[in-house]
Amino acid sequence: MTKLGVALLSLIVSSSVAAQGLPSDKPLRILIGFPPGTTADVIVRLMAPKLAEGLGQQVVVENRPGAGSSIAAEAVARAPADGGTLLASTINPALYKLGFDFARDLSPVALLAEAPGLLVASAEFPAASVRELIAAAKAAPGTIFYGSSGNGTVTHLYGELFNLGAGVKLGHIPYKGSSQAVTDLLGGRIQLLFTPASTVVPQVRAGKMKALGAIGRKRLVALPDVPTLAEAGVAGFEAGLWFGLNAPGATPRAAIERLNREVAHVLALPEIRAQLAAQSIEAATGSPEQFGELIRSDTTKWARVVSAAGIKAD
Question: pTM for this structure?
Answer without folding.
Answer: 0.80
